[in-house]
Amino acid sequence: MKGQIITVALILLGHTFLTPAVQAIGFDYYNDHGVMSYGKGYWGDKKIIAQFPKMNRADLRLVTNISGERELVEGYIPTDEISIKNEEYHWVTDGRVILWRGKIVSNPPGTPTVDIASFQAMGRFAVDKYSLYFDGQRTESNSGASRVDLATLKA
């Protein structure tokens, strides 16, 4: 009996050290019954965060990267991911709107609309010809002293 308790204790202790404390949580865009959704988790554990009835997952593509990097596979959208060591999100578009973390990026009233054609991103930062963005929010105008020199960023 004592030997069995020690064996079970060693198994549990080993499992504790071999299993990461926090695993990554994935967020993806997917079509479900004709509606594009952004959700957390997989299969039975899936939780819908946002739905976009007029959009199709097949139309999404990554926003142009400021660094000039291209998609490795056309139409492939990496999973947005949160772990204890990393947060990774991707700016995506269907050519009509920009999405960040399952939300449509839009500018406040009285500011120019998001310019899809000139929109470029690098990590959590993005820029179009009118605005600067961080974490999906417009932070300021892309003019005057705050104007971003994209050529310098690419170097």
TrEMBL record:
Q: Specify the superkingdom.
A: Bacteria
Q: Under what name is this protein listed? A: DKNYY family protein
| Organism whose genome encodes this protein | Escherichia coli
